[in-house]
Input
Amino acid sequence: MYFNHYTNRPVDLAVHLVNTCQADGDQIAEADDLNQLLEGYRDLWEGVAQPPKASELKAIHQLRDSLRTVMVSPDDATAAGHVNAILSDYGAVPRVSMHNGEPHLHFEPVNGTMTSWLGTTTAMGLAAVIVEDGVGRFGACNASDCDDVFVDTSRNRSRLNCSTTCSTREAVAAHRKRKDKAKAKGK
Ligand SMILES: [Zn+2]
Ligand SMILES: [Zn+2]
Output
């Protein structure tokens, strides 16, 4: 990847954010939940963005949807279009920042809100993956009751599930299905 600081952790943050939207509930339904999530990434935003305001929650839910759209794009051109729209919508302005003493790239507007920081940072993380490896690096879980996204770091991009929990559950279900079929045939 091309830039320190804006590589894996912003991508982790994007994945983390997208996967807060669960069938059984929104894990960042309340401002407190969002604060807690962002606390784990404080080293990335401290000094360059304001802590989130409760009024930003809705915008961040929208951003979450947009990030998912990028990650499930069918091809690179579509993903590029979506990611460019986020960068433009959230006011990305590339610059060299010295806030931690070392020159490195930042993309959020100066004195920006948490929303603008989050939008530009996560979108640049995804953009870096797309530029480097293509949108095929992203995946959405194959399990019937799971929509979680992931970054497929397997060599042949063969990963089907977001986690070992889901792949184990899928394997058990497939095994049971085969067994049931065999039983039905035996009758
Ligand atoms: Zn920085
Ligand atoms: Zn899953």
In short: The chain has seven helices and six strands. The pocket of zinc ion (ligand 1) is lined by residues 5, 97, 99-100, 104, 106 (CB under 6 Å).
